[in-house]
TrEMBL record:
It comes from Lentilactobacillus sunkii DSM 19904. It catalyses: L-arginine + H2O = L-citrulline + NH4(+). One of its GO terms (biological process) is L-arginine deiminase pathway. Belongs to the arginine deiminase family. Pathway: Amino-acid degradation; L-arginine degradation via ADI pathway; carbamoyl phosphate from L-arginine: step 1/2. This is Arginine deiminase. GO terms for cellular component: cytoplasm. SUPFAM superfamilies: Pentein (SSF55909). One of its GO terms (molecular function) is arginine deiminase activity. InterPro entries: Arg_deiminase (IPR003876). Its EC number is 3.5.3.6.
Amino acid sequence: MTSPIHVTSEIGKLKTVLLKRPGREIENFTPDMMPRLLFDDIPYLPIAQKEHDYFADTLRDNGVEVLYLEKLAAEALDAGGDKVRDDFLEQMLTESGYAAGTIHDALKEYLDSMNNQDMVNKIMEGIRKNEVDFVPTDLVSAAETEGYEFYMDPMPNLYFTRDPSASIGEGLSINHMTFPARQRESLFNEIVIKYHPRFANKGVHVWRDRNHDTRIEGGDELVLNDHVMAIGVSQRTSADAIQDIAKSLFKEGHFDTVIAIKIPHNHAMMHLDTVFTMINYDQFTVHPGILGEGGHIDTWTITPGKNGELNLDHRTDLKQVLKDALKLDDLDLIPTGNGDPIIAGREQWNDGSNTLAIAPGVVVTYNRNYVSNDLLRKHGLKVLEVISSELSRGRGGPRCMSCPIVREDI
Ligand SMILES: NC(=[NH2+])NCCC[C@H](N)C(=O)O
């Protein structure tokens, strides 16, 4: 059976992609909630949607089928039936802090009055206290939640579909994410894979599911070719999760190499794909800020060892490591902002390194990163710019905003 997921590179012609159109969740919060929700500002929703539609149209104009997470999730619940919907809702309430009790019951009743699409949208947008018909009568509900506006927080990061799951080969990882603000997101991906007619029982292999304590996010998971992956050791992805997924990939798939790349652990560079992306057979974007003296950075090339163990090779010359793993004579590492420290810092902040390749040498980028975009063109790439004033406020670019489902082989 051919799997409905097929991704054997970062650059093969993109055929199908998963997006999430920004909804009310991206404005349903106040500045004091921003750090916890991993946002740096509150986007202006109508413009953010316009920009996102432009992004989706750019992909469609280039022959890409665009799927929407919010739609697939509702369709998965439609297909799954009452029991699946109920289990999903219980799980979502539990992960939102209400496994049982009077607030649980009130939220359940409220959400249960909606059809699947409305319920999915509502969970994504967040639930404020003033919209639920509930007067607390016990001390826990009355005292412990006083002064906070929400029963269920919005999930503003959902439009970064890259992170909660990652397509790898004929399968995917459904991720246990790092921060509470994003941990519930991958529940949507899980129901889509389990129950949506397009994916359910179609031979999709789950390399690693969301039921783990160790953390990994798709922004760190780069499929370089059909047997080599690069995974960031980052603020969001831990070394033990990388070892775990490497074992699973080596055991049951066609992968034989995982290059773990250690990047700074901070908000601006939260994932490997904010500082490093593959854009052609032999071309990558790299933010100069991650390279130490002489262009060095810690990398560990992981390969299968004896008895299911892993072999490790620690090296610091990123260019040589990539050349060896990809069997290339030369490699073009293109520095964000052309290496100027001010421009590189600014354009990396606005995801100037976060390019989405839709074919070898053809990339989608934010228009605001004009220095990096010019440089990409000078290096021979075809650059399709998308508008980005509001979308960039969530700290993610075209690669983060897209989860490839099918790419042609390279
Ligand atoms: N793959 C990525 N770089 N995603 C960016 C995610 C940004 C989001 N605000 C977060 O902090 O999680």
